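Lecture 7 notes: from sequence to structure.

We start with a single chain of 130 residues. Read the sequence below before looking at the structure.
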Amino acid sequence: MKGYVQDIESIATVNKNFRRVLYTARSCQLVVMSLEPREDIGAEVHTLDQFFRVEAGRGEAELDGVRTPIRAGFAVIVPAGARHNIINTGTEPLKLYTLYAPPNHRDGVVHPTRADAQADTEGFDGKTSE
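Now the structure, written as tokens:
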């Protein structure tokens, strides 16, 4: 079977890695993330669109300087060119998944910590999951 069919809520809530790429298609990519209390993804701007879905925890989504509280069940859409950040403002890990369109990271890459992610300067190399 081509494609990806899994219980993303369960996968996201048990994930302990800062970033784990689950599936990469030609035009989009599925990634789970876990942010520790007071941790953030780091303010950034992409030339691609991005979608976040919070599965557990509390935090803030910052888009072009506007901060909005988020919690389990919230979705955030970041259009290309928007400066954005996701910040864990709670006391428990913030569990989420994100879709990049098109892909942004190498297929299958795992960054256990934010420091590991920042040290990795390689981006998407064009290889997909299939």
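Helices lie at 8-14, 114-119. Keep this in mind for problem set 3.
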